[in-house]
Specification:
The protein is of the alpha/beta class. The chain contains 9 helices and 7 strands, in the order H-H-H-E-H-E-H-H-E-E-H-E-H-E-E-H. Helix 3 crosses helix 4.
């Protein structure tokens, strides 16, 4: 039988049922400052379209909709129960068509390339099945020079500030392998353990390469 600690971790990975909803409410409180900090590292502008991967109970989406009046958000989370909580929390924004939520993975999504200006994720990348592939998908969704911010605060037993630093290096590597540029690690001092946010931009294709591609298509 699955141990209680492993069982609870599983519920945070894909929260379901009563314990899953309790986990969702816990995440909403715990991630409050991280959501605000993550948003501050994105150059959010009037009219921006954002996507959040792993929106959980929807607290981050709620914060951004309140703080930035003329933006819209799309969210992806693999938990149907988290979608239910997030929809309840953001029902007004959904009615205003500012928020659209899905209970599926990035790999299962059907978004068109160059749809979003910004992308972000808070405390979810560790449970992505294929982080590099998912980041490549997100990169395709971003407009040229679009921004991404990936935030993580370690929660595993024995985690330290050094763990957070190592997480920053791993996320940076994922982003590099996915083809992002201007990768920067930001550290937020927190208790009991620091958090890191890694920001990056989608590469802009060299204009000379585009000209050559167009020339080759014609000839």
């Amino acid at each position: 039988m699955m141990g209680i600690r492993k069982y609870i971790f599983h519920k945070f990975e894909k929260p379901t049922g009563v314990i899953g909803k309790i986990a969702g409410r816990y995440m909403a409180v715990e991630n409050k400052s991280l959501n605000k900090w993550t948003a501050s590292l994105l150059d959010i502008r009037d009219g921006d379209k954002l996507v959040e991967v792993g929106y959980g109970p929807g607290k981050g989406i709620e914060y951004i909709c309140r703080a930035y009046q003329n933006v819209s958000l799309t969210g992806y989370d693999i938990s149907a129960d988290m979608k239910e909580l997030a929809e309840s929390r953001n029902s007004d924004y959904i009615k205003e068509r500012r928020v659209t939520l899905y209970s599926r993975s990035v790999a299962e999504a059907s978004e068109q390339p160059e749809t979003f200006d910004k992308a972000y994720s808070v405390n979810s990348i560790l449970i992505w099945k294929d982080p590099v592939n998912d980041l490549r998908v997100i990169k395709e969704w971003l407009k040229p020079n679009g921004q991404i911010a990936i935030t993580l605060q370690p929660h595993e037993k024995g985690a330290t500030d050094e763990t957070a630093e190592e997480n920053g290096k791993v996320i940076s590597l994922y982003l590099k392998q996915a083809g992002f540029q201007n990768i920067t690690v930001h550290t937020k001092e927190m208790k009991p353990v620091n958090a890191v946010t890694v920001t990056a931009n989608k590469k802009i294709e060299n204009s000379n390469n585009n000209v050559l591609k167009n020339f080759n298509r014609v000839h």
